[in-house]
Backbone:
């Protein structure tokens, strides 16, 4: 997907790319690109094989290391029929890099359980060495062509976000007028929309559109630390095997396969224990069928997790969705509503995106952002995604928590917004693009740019201070502007340091101002 010609940000972003770093002198992909592929698991995960032909199941790819040593720490990998193991993962271009780089002699690499390489092969020279971890070659296992992955992943970084509060871009960004800044953020948001949509397109080529959507929904429920366990659940056959029809049956199956089902009663909460007994009664009947899919508990991370976001409760909500065989058709109908006026748009009338960038469109945006139609959009989608009161989970955060004084919805408005801007709208948009349905594409873009602001997070807080010079949440009026700021952080801040060394964002801000009516 090529960026629209009028998108100054996308054009400038392309000019800032250093394509030479994506390949080495022999035409291989650069190691940092392979690291990004592994980090995001842009692989055909059901087809991974070790160099000796054993299946590889990635239960968690690990956390990127910024402190030297192996590239990823605390991964959870299952090789063949062996039990899952937790350890480190090292990424190299060639298999003989293990010895050539001295990893075999470095004690920091003693916990490496998987050596991920682009190309396998014997060492070019030197004595034979047999002591090496299991090797996984990924050259023929990518989920998209290397060029497409390069475009999508080249701005990924494993470095930590800079901690300084003000960057060199803060001054030139403050010189932008309010409409200019809003336009820049919208253009960056459109780049982010395309990037998320490209990932859905790549996955759909191998698994189908509906499966790609389910995986996106589950991943979002994983928040920061539990993305990959959720992804594994969404990929497993447990979602689609016959038998489970009711929300309760799906809850038993998902909780059982996830490894999150307690094995002991609380002995203090009768209601929780009664529900747990019923879940086990249901899960026992299916346990042998799904024994090879059960996740080890070590793949789940609970530190710093709010009780309302506990994966047990999120899986309970997902079970309701799975039991509703019409959920995806409801989302598609919600998407199709409102496209009539775009189909009738006369020739010469600007598109929704063009209209949004016009003076009148910007004035209208200032008046309506965060209210009116935007709130109706959120409410209408929330109505589809919200479920009826659950007999247990509407009253409990987890199995062990006490019964709540009043029932709590399984899905709040802020989580519905996260699902909309990160999953549902990108998924619908790329389907409209590939289906050449221009009217539907424009309607989805309109909703994307009108969507109310999402919940604040640490990246946005620091970016507002560092780039925009303000701590106020009101500086970003809707979800699209939040998405745009996060895209700028990814494209520029993540590739510089605390003193903004060699960052081209200040220059881009100046050129953007000049190109859009600045002095």
Residues:
């Amino acid at each position: 997907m090529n960026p629209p010609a009028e998108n100054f940000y996308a054009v400038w972003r392309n000019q800032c790319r250093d394509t030479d770093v994506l390949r080495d002198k022999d035409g291989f992909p650069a190691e940092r690109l392979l690291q990004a592929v592994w980090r995001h698991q842009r692989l055909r995960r059901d087809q991974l094989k070790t160099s000796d032909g054993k299946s590889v199941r990635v239960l968690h790819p690990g956390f990127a290391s910024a402190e030297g040593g192996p590239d990823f720490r605390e991964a959870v990998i299952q090789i063949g029929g062996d039990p899952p193991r937790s350890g480190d993962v090292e990424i190299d271009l060639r298999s003989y890099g293990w010895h050539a780089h001295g990893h075999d002699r470095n004690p920091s690499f003693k916990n490496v359980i998987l050596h991920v390489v682009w190309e396998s092969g014997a060492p070019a020279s030197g004595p034979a060495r047999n002591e090496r971890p299991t090797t996984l070659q990924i050259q023929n296992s990518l989920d998209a062509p290397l060029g497409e992955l390069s475009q999508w992943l080249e701005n990924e970084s494993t470095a930590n976000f800079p901690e300084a509060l003000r960057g060199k871009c803060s001054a030139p960004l403050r010189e932008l007028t309010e409409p200019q800044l809003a336009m820049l953020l919208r253009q960056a948001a459109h780049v982010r929309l395309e990037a998320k949509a490209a990932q859905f397109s790549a996955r759909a080529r191998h698994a189908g559109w509906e499966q790609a959507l389910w995986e996106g929904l589950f991943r979002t429920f994983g928040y920061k630390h539990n993305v990959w366990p959720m992804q594994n659940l969404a990929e497993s056959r447990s979602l689609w095997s016959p038998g489970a029809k009711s929300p309760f049956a799906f809850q038993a199956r998902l909780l059982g396969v996830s490894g999150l089902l307690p094995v002991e009663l609380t002995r203090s909460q009768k209601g929780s224990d009664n529900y747990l007994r019923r879940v086990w009664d249901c899960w026992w009947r299916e346990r042998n069928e799904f024994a090879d899919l059960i996740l080890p508990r070590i793949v789940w991370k609970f530190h710093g997790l709010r009780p309302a976001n506990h994966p047990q409760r999120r899986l309970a909500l997902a079970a309701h969705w799975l039991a509703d065989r019409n959920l995806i058709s409801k989302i598609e109908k919600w998407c199709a509503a409102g496209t009539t006026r775009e189909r009738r748009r006369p020739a010469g009338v600007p598109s929704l995106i063009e209209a949004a960038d016009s003076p009148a469109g910007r004035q209208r945006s200032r008046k309506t952002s965060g209210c009116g139609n935007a709130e109706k959009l959120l409410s209408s989608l929330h109505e589809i995604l919200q479920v009826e009161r659950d007999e247990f989970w509407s009253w409990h955060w987890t199995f062990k928590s006490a019964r709540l004084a009043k029932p709590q919805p399984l899905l709040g408005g802020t989580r519905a917004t996260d699902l909309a801007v990160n999953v549902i709208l990108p998924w619908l948009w790329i389907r409209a693009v590939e289906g050449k349905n221009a009217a539907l594409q424009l309607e989805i873009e309109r909703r994307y740019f009108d969507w109310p602001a999402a919940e604040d997070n640490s990246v946005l807080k620091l970016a507002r201070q560092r780039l925009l010079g303000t701590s106020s949440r009101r500086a970003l009026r809707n979800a699209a502007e939040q998405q745009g700021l996060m895209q700028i952080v990814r494209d520029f801040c993540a590739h510089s340091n605390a003193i903004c060394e060699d960052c081209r964002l200040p220059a881009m801000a100046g050129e953007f101002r000049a190109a859009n009516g600045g002095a």
